[in-house]
Amino acid sequence: MNVEITFLPSGRSVIVRAGTTVLDAARKAGVPIRTRCDGKAACLMCKVTMPHSSSGLTPLNDNERRKLAGLDRSGTRLACQARVFGRAVVEVPEDPFRAAVRKQMMRQAEDDELW
Ligand code: FES
Predict the structure, then answer these.
(1) Which of 1, 34, 74, 106 has an alpha carbon 20 to 30 Å from 99's alpha carbon atom?
(2) Cβ–ligand 1 contact at 22 (below 6 Å)
(3) Per residue in 41-85, pLDDT tens?
(4) Rg of the chain in Å (alpha carbons)
(5) pLDDT exceeds 90 at position 23
(6) Which of ligand 1's atoms lies nearest the C-alpha of 78?
(7) CATH architecture of the domain with range 2-114
(8) Is 84 exposed, middle or buried (0-12, 13-18, 19+ CB in 10 A)?
(9) How far apart are CA 107 and CA 7, in angstroms?
(10) What's the per-residue H, E or C state across 31-99?
(11) How far does residue 5's CA lie from ligand 1's centre (Å)?
């Protein structure tokens, strides 16, 4: 069975086989998700959030629940552990380096407007 997953904020969607990890689906969609452990639930860099309470993702496994230490209550999942089994939408946080550059550029633009 194939299922669709959409990644926010880009809005990119991809059809994958049910049981595919969110991380692998993101790679297929060309959506970058940071990882250092390559999907071994060790680096905790692949956090994504579910903007809607309805989820097409598998329930947390014990390892993911332990690693998230309560963050799962706010909809956070590890992309390398969560698997897609139905229509799903997940939000990928902005890369921290990109976010810092974007903020710096916005500050610079504001300063330029003052002159
Ligand atoms: S890729 Fe490292 S924890 Fe998910």
Answers:
(1) 74
(2) no
(3) 999 999 999 987 657 999 998 999 999 998 888 889 999 999 999
(4) 16
(5) yes
(6) 4
(7) Roll (3.10)
(8) buried
(9) 28
(10) CCCCCCCCCCCCCCCCEEECCCCCCCECCCCHHHHHHHCCHHHHCEEECCCCEECCCEEEECCCCHHHH
(11) 19
Amino acid at 96: P
CA angle 72, 22, 85 (to 5 degrees): 90
> Closest Cα to atom 2, ligand 1: which residue?
43
Three-state SS for 100?
A: helix
Tokens of 59: 């329930």
Hey, CA dihedral for 86, 40, 76, 10, is it positive or negative?
A: negative
Amino acid at 55: S
